[in-house]
Amino acid sequence: MALRNMSKIVLCCFGLALLTSCGNTIRGVGRDTANAVNATQDAGRSVEKAAKY
What we know:
Elements: H1 2-52
């Protein structure tokens, strides 16, 4: 009986760790996407400035 309870506790801890990892990954993807958008906008501004001259 004690082994069954211990395995449930370990499984819950593993599940919580997995969910935490997913949250960090999603946050990182959001930051990467924002950085890519900013870089694209900056490149567009550079092209626009170069086309004016």
